[in-house]
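Example 3.2
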Amino acid sequence: MKSATESFFYSLDQLSDPPPQGQLLYVPMHKIPNLALGKVANRAVIRVFFPRLYGKFDTPQIPRPDLESIYNSCLRPIVQRLMPNQATHWPPSYNTNMQISRDRAGRFHFGSFDIPAYLLDEFAEMYLHSVQQLRPYFRDAYFGHELRGWKAATVHNLDEDIDGGNRHQDNPAYERIDALDDLTNVLHMPSINPEQWLVDVGLEFGNQGHVVTWRKNGHAALIRHLLPDHDDPAAAMERSRRYYVDYHMHLKDIAGFRWTPGRHSDVIKYAQAYTTEKAISYQLHDGIFRPRKPSELLSDRLIERLLSDLDKQAAVIFTCTGNGDMRDNQAQDGCARLEVRVPLNYAQDVLTRMPRRLINDTMVQVPACYWW
């Protein structure tokens, strides 16, 4: 059993202009209009947020004329000033960049341009100063750093084993501390309000040769474990419109869940329980496991394509049984994962232990060859 601390961070921010009542308005940061300015490696995005644009238009997207103005009158002139030679690699205008980055199917393929590290401070200062001069509603713009998609970026053992004994006498809590330090070493922590940064903390339970998953009737016990100070968290969850049950196939007794506690918890902002075997069919892109539309049954050509995708799906599942091209003919295992999203200052205080009785009452293990 291991606890994995993940690095999907975001924060809540306050708008610069108070609402008519004279009170500060707090909104989810991702709903504030913003643009992606650059990347650091593959999983960190630097965004520019424009709080005065919040609610100004029908959508949070920044209008194209404003994007043109930012590139033509702010970004490219700064690059020309700081890096005149490298500026020759940058397209001369926003519209030119859009045209040369689009393929015949209309998809975009953007290139990348590096800014040397020694110029970053000067570039950042000039960019924010320049962009705020373009439009009144660009004032108070600021940078945001998004670290995303680092599932199991750091992994450590529980403080106690499932029987209550400590197997790590020399470093019971230090593994959590070291894991969090590893996760946040790219951040300047004195500049961060940990109450406004959120981090996902997860526990995974697995047994080799099995798919470990969740019992539907164990959800209430899990929530009582997560919210011990609440009078009746299970009832609050079951009444909530933000509680979703995720069944496995047609097995009504086997299901994970997702829940946003809201006012029922000051610490846990989101909780979910799922099984990692979903990684086989979970696709962010339009792949063979994508949701299907009724229109795919309206022509012979579409039906043939659908049947072909079904054959490919069957081949994937067949491989997971231990047949096909699996090495050593071992079936694909799956772990039960419990995950909570909490403010950064609570990251070391949640999911530190899991009683044996709770494991027995909330999980079930199925031989992997039978599961698939």
